[in-house]
Amino acid sequence: MENPVARAMTQTSATGAHNLGFTLIELLVVLVIAGITLGLVTLSFRSSQSNQLAEQGRHLAALMNLATDEARLTGQPLLLRLDRNGWQFAQEWGQTPNGGLTPSPPSATTIDPGRFSPPLDRLGLWPVIDANASVDTLDLWLGREALNDPMGILLQQGAQQIILTSDGLGGYTMQQRSP
Q: CB 3.0 to 4.6 Å from 172: which of 24, 61, 85, 163, for a disulfide?
């Protein structure tokens, strides 16, 4: 007795001979589907690489907002130290009994450090007088005060630039900028 599954999978030509294998049309359809899938994966990977700095900028802006809230709640200003490789938050000042600030060893905060991947090509304050100005390390105090001067931090990787801006009230946002 012949297996019905095997019989359904074979084709019978007009002469009655059994042909096993795929037709040219079937092979072309598979190649087209594979090509479309590969194209979509490649486009998705490229867009994720180009958006990586923007994602890191949004994340850093959120951490800066969190650090500002922490500084206000604890009464301790926090230092944000940025360099081309990443960022770190620290409480480097303690409070004296009479209410003044005194240096103390760096201590951990509830905010973990982070890294830029790949490292930044350019780091600086915004707006700047010299458009090509860049620094290796940038220290920013996030204080207890509700009002600060509006400012921005420029981050650049390749041709992509973003600016982390402060509205002066302690809120930080990320804006994309073309060089």
A: 61
Per-residue pLDDT of 77-99, as tens digits, reads 888 888 899 998 877 655 666 65
Report angle CA 41, 47, 51 to the nearest 5 degrees: 145
How many domains is the chain built from? Answer: 1
Amino acid at 14: A
Total-model pTM: 0.63
Asked if residues 135 and 158 have their Cβ atoms less than 8 Å apart, the reply is no
Task: State whether the Cα torsion 9-13-15-17 is positive or negative.
Answer: negative
CB atoms within 10 A of CB 86: 16
Instruction: Specify if 22 maps to a domain.
Output: no
Neighbours of 19 (CB within 10 A): 10
